[in-house]
Write a structure and sequence with these properties.
alpha/beta; Rossmann fold; 10 helices; 13 strands
Length: about 350
């Protein structure tokens, strides 16, 4: 349950679209607020839902789990006792933030992919030497703005340039790149094991885009959940308090609200599964009875037990990361994992980068 999405199923990118417009290298123009119900439906969301529900095996990309309510629920998930990735990654950042800052160097531009609440960001910014700018990129506009407001209070002299964008597609370099000091390194911070929401080939494509974004001297700070123990994995994605179930079912509530859907949320239940062969967790919404649902005037039939596949979370180990990085034109230059070897932070850079 991390950040973003992919082949139709994944967890935390953002929908295609432009981000905020930047006012030179100063304050960022505020992204427009999400349209209300009177506005036409989001075309990308509508297309993803209609295509996914019409497929032989129904699925909707996890991108669309992250409206404002979904983002709030995900933040609640990260505080649950069963959900170990967030607290483990935070521990690693506390222990090794100074090492990461040393690799980043002075005057760096920090770009965070799938920034969410940006709760991990201060652990890096506080250790970095005169960071020039922070560019958070996230799918949820309202959630992004709230997080940025809190960070501006903590770092009043830092250029903070929020961008609403989909990291699974091309990313436009922020204007801050052109205004930063010549020695500034572009550091892409990709935490939360969002890379795990992508199938291996998609992860390679994503890493390739991030390499292009950060440039020849760039650095990628990649957080990865590498746990493959079912006894801890399954509860992390199906907690006893039912918060993950609310998060998953919120997708149906969003379809009802934004796409004139008729889903009965009580007629579906959340389920997590572990695919041992692919080393991935899957999230599904299971139809509890035979039923038909209308979305934007289109009818979709469900048999009892049929599912909507809403997320994948691959558990890539170090060998997987090194192999995918090599295919993306990157190499692993440093990294750390926790004592239980469940979670790791990898530093990746182009071969020509000076460390």
């Amino acid at each position: 349950m991390h950040g973003s999405p992919a082949t139709g199923v994944g967890r935390t990118p953002a929908r295609p679209g432009t981000g905020d417009t930047l006012n030179g290298c100063g304050q960022a123009a505020r992204p427009r607020e999400r349209p209300g119900r009177a506005q036409p439906p989001d075309e990308a969301f509508a297309a993803a839902v209609l295509t996914g529900l019409g497929a032989p095996r129904k699925s909707i990309p996890s991108t669309w789990l992250y409206d404002e309510r979904g983002s709030q629920l995900f933040e609640a998930i990260t505080d649950l006792p069963e959900y170990y990735p967030t607290r483990t990654e935070i521990g690693l950042l506390r222990d090794h933030g100074t090492d990461i800052a040393r690799h980043a160097g002075p005057d760096a531009v920090l770009i965070e992919i799938g920034s969410g609440s940006s709760r991990k960001t201060p652990l890096l910014l506080a250790r970095m030497e005169h960071p020039f700018a922070y560019v958070p990129i996230d799918i949820s506009r309202a959630f992004l703005l709230h997080s940025v407001a809190l960070l501006r209070d903590q770092f009043p002299h830092l250029h903070i340039l929020p961008t609403v964008a989909d990291f699974t597609g091309p990313l436009q370099p922020p204007h801050a790149f052109h205004c930063a000091p010549a020695r500034a390194r572009r550091v892409v911070f990709f935490p939360g094991s969002t890379i795990g929401n992508l199938a291996p080939d998609e992860a390679v494509s994503c890493l390739t885009r991030l390499r292009e974004l950060c440039g020849r001297r760039g650095l990628i700070v990649l957080g990865v959940d590498q746990n493959r123990e079912e006894t801890t994995l399954l509860p992390a994605y199906d907690d006893a308090d039912g918060v993950t179930a609310q998060f998953d079912l919120n997708l149906l509530a969003r379809i009802n609200r934004e796409l004139d859907g008729t889903f009965d949320l009580d007629a579906f239940r959340h389920e997590s599964r572990y695919d041992r062969q692919r080393h991935r967790i899957e999230m599904h919404l299971v139809s509890q009875r035979e039923q038909s649902v209308r979305v934007l005037g289109h009818w979709f039939h469900f048999t009892a037990g049929e599912t909507i596949h809403t997320e994948n979370s691959y558990k890539f180990d170090r060998a997987d990361i090194e192999a995918m990085a090599a295919r993306a034109g990157l190499r692993r230059i440093d990294g750390w994992s926790d004592d239980d070897d469940r979670f790791a932070i990898h530093l990746l850079a182009p071969p020509e980068a000076v460390n």
